[in-house]
Amino acid sequence: MGGSGRIAVFFVTVLGVWTLMHLYAAWRLSPLAAATRLPSRLALGILAFLWLAYPLGRLLDRGSGGSPLALALEYLGACWMGVLFLLVMALVVADLLTGFGAWQRAAVPVRGGFAALALLLAAVGLVQGNRAPVVERHELVLPGLPQALDGLRVCQLSDLHLGTILGDRWLAARLEQVRALDPDLVVITGDLVDGKARHVEKLVPLLRRLRARLGVYAVTGNHEFYAGLERSVALLEAAGFRVLRDTHVEVAPGLVLAGVDDLTARRQFGTKHQALDSALQGRPPGACILLSHTPWEVSRAQGLGVQLMLSGHTHDGQIWPFGYLVRLSYPYLGGLYRVGSSTLYVSRGTGTWGPRMRLPRPAEITLFTLRAPGGTQAPSPRAGE
Question: What is each CA distance from 268 to 85, 263, 272, in whole angstroms?
Fold first, then answer.
């Protein structure tokens, strides 16, 4: 199957799951609607509208260039996406506790209680999702780092998902957060773009404000592929970022920065390529940091001499308990990991995808202080493999 076929199967699968979630919620909530005397046709009409809102908003955006109606539908549908996920999880738990309705006397009130809990968690998630990202600070000893670079400050941004939901005001606030950190180097580990590239192209003058003494470097994420890879790369370069596409650069004597195009998108599009080999071969000596949106091939990167790998993509699950499903494909879900002699850091993301929700933890901007061997010893990350 070709790349376009894989993408078609992926989206059909997503739409199918989206539909099944609505059908399950309608089935399990119908007794509650009857108990509250809500007309069944009205309840089904509301649910059908919510089912349609997000895909319709995206579809209208393709033709309208970002009309208020398209943006409103997308935002409403995105919020409903998070609420529905929590609602379905709560109803599943309620069904397990009542034997899927076998304990009839308790089934309706138990479902009602868990549905209320889901709505409460959704409210908490919305508050967390709309909070400013917190700054996560880590001090890491980097083998091979020259003493002259001891104390180098690297700021990681990941998964900003700029577009129709996260726009200029949100971005300006994030740039101010980064400016206040005064990093020596800024890295963007993919998914800066969300949806259509044209929405983010309007933000290029704002993105040009992102500066650091040793430069701003970026790699592509899967959403750059979805938005059009070449157009997305041109956007990043127009913003003044150096895009590392299966290549490396010596940002300072003794410190090499390498980056690869997204591994998840490559698999989805059926592109086979030894990305890590291309990015790392022939590099000058010294410490090496690898930027890879997807936290895959970590052991291989360690075997190729990478001391620190920075990734994103997983959002740390974004909304609990979705992380348990994400971990099936991405075992390194979020935070610091020790893999052999290397360190992996998986950012939970600076922005959000879909619903402006985070549960339980808010988004992050990450600041690393790099230490040369023999200097201040940093705490050890938890074991990985």
Answer: 24, 9, 10
Please choose, from the candidates 366, 375, 221, the residue with its C-alpha nearest in 3D space to the C-alpha of residue 292. 221
Euclidean distance between CA atoms 109 and 73, whole angstroms: 32
**Beta-bridge partners for 140:** 370
Distance, C-alpha 156 to centroid of its chain:
13
SS (H, E, C) 46-64: HHHHHHHHHHHHHHHHHHH
Domain span at 69: 3-129
For residues 232 and 379, state if they share a domain.
Answer: yes
How far is it between the farthest Cα atoms of the chain?
73
* pLDDT, tens only, 12-26: 888 899 999 999 999
Contact 87, 118 (CB under 8 A): yes
Global pTM value: 0.92
Cβ contacts of 83 within 8 Å, gap of 6 or more: 118, 119, 122, 355
Q: Give dist(CA 131, CA 200) in Å, integer.
A: 22
The number of C-alpha atoms within 13 Å of 99 and in the hemisphere containing its C-beta is 5
Sign of CA dihedral 78, 360, 323, 90: negative
Please indicate, yes or no, whether residues 146 and 123 belong to a single structural domain of this protein: no
208 and 68 housed in the same domain: no
> For the chain, how many structural domains are there in total?
2
Per-residue confidence at 9, pLDDT binned at 50, 70, 90?
confident
Instruction: Quote the CA–CA distance of 259 and 138 in Å, as a whole number.
Output: 21
Give the domain-ending residue among 114, 129, 144.
129
164 and 252 together in one domain? yes
36 to 32, 43, 109, 181: CA distances (angstroms) = 6, 11, 12, 53
92 and 173 belong to one structural domain: no
Q: What are phi and psi of 110, to 5 degrees?
A: -65, -45
Report the mean per-residue pLDDT for the chain.
Answer: 92
